[in-house]
Amino acid sequence: MSAITLRALTKVYPGGVRALDALDLDVADGEFFALLGPSGCGKTTLLRTVAGLETATGGTIRLGDADVTRLPPGRRDVGMVFQDYALFPHMTVLDNIAYPLRIKKEGRARRHGAAAEAAEYLSLAGLEQRRPGELSGGQQQRVALARALVAHPRIFLLDEPLSNLDARLRLEARTFLKRLQRELGVTTVFVTHDQAEALALADRIAVMEAGRIRQLGTPVEVFRRPANLFVASFIGSTPMNLLPGRVCGGSVAVAGAVLPVPAEERGSVEDGESVVCGVRPEYLDFSDVPADGAFGGRVSVVEHLGASSLVTLDVGDDRVSVVVGEDREPRPGDEGWAVPRPGRVLLYRDGELITGA
Ligand code: ATP
């Protein structure tokens, strides 16, 4: 049984914005699940609707075997961390953490015992009597996590939990969050618009656009085989090369190169058909001598990324970017060839990935 089962979940806000459009989703027990997508695609609405902070316009929400679609938030057994943490400024750290237990009318001793334990677990020991205004961003975030976890919820919902932290703290907090989720094994759904964060943390990712899921898969699946051009252009810290091509006799003519159509997709394309070829800059090797099946052109831009650089080749009217290791240093004006790695060129028709029949 899934921990979260959404069927035809729809949310239309007053005014007519369809933030969730008949969405189906199954999140497995103990899974660390990311909702990823551009601003306004409906990620926060999905999380808030599962938490019960928004009412679904249509469809159902099951948590375990219970239909919670019409239950108020307090009876859904979920812990939520908000983007701005939403801590009570006038309360101490300990009282903030203990708050969900107060709502559940637990006795004072039990409340404080459990809150102190959660504080200790989240490395907040010694800070229990401070108020949120006297804490760093990272500490405030851990208080919000402790408060969400103190009542041992069945589901943990995190809305952009790392977005208020600076770049370095963010990396630390990311590792911390991953370890915490592994240790507790609690089913967790987190919202992010940062694809690197989703790829690094999640067991599976749903990439959303306009209230729908455009692809659902592991980080490796969505990175290696984006199901459509929307996901292909959204995922990846360097954008995927997307080049127009034409099928001809078992090959694709694209950006001056002739590439074989992958064997398993040969039966799915027709001669003369227009396609889009997608290949990630990371899956191209740079060569300074001509190579078969390579995109040949002239280096126009070199951007240093640290241990590698992103090199742009002008190939006729097309541009092809390649991630080049530090052992090579092409310069603008040099001739160069970008050699696709076997099996790494994807073909798209009408915006959708062509897969073998
Ligand atoms: P972001 O990454 O910017 O937080 P999001 O993916 O979380 O975006 P939502 O906040 O879920 O997106 O919003 C989805 C759509 O619903 C947007 O078009 C937004 O303008 C609209 N929306 C959100 N909340 C409301 C509301 N209370 N009333 C009306 N429309 C809303």
CATH topology of the largest domain: Rossmann fold
Task: Report the CATH superfamily of the largest domain.
Answer: P-loop containing nucleotide triphosphate hydrolases
Number of DSSP-assigned strands: 21
Question: Judging by the overall fold, what is the CATH architecture of the largest domain?
Answer: 3-Layer(aba) Sandwich
Low-confidence stretches: none
What is the 3D form? Answer: elongated
* Largest sheet report: 6 strands, mixed
Report the sheet-strand fraction: 25-35%
The unique ligands bound to this protein are:
adenosine-5'-triphosphate
Task: Estimate percent helicity.
Answer: 10-25%
Strand order of the largest sheet: 6-7-8-3-9-10
Overall number of domains: 2
Q: How far apart lie the N and C ends?
A: 31 Å
Q: Provide the CATH top-level class of the largest domain.
A: Alpha Beta
Q: Tally the helices.
A: 8
* Gyration radius, in Å: 24 Å
What does this structure look like?
- The structure is a single chain.
- The protein is α+β, with helices and mostly antiparallel strands and 357 residues long.
- The chain has 2 domains: 4-234, Rossmann fold, CATH 3.40.50; 241-353, Beta Barrel (OB fold (Dihydrolipoamide Acetyltransferase, E2P)), CATH 2.40.50.140.
- It contains 8 helices and 21 strands.
- It has a 6-stranded mixed sheet, with helices on both faces. A 6-stranded antiparallel sheet has the order 13-12-11-14-20-21.
- The radius of gyration is 24 Å and the shape is elongated.
- The two termini are 31 Å apart.
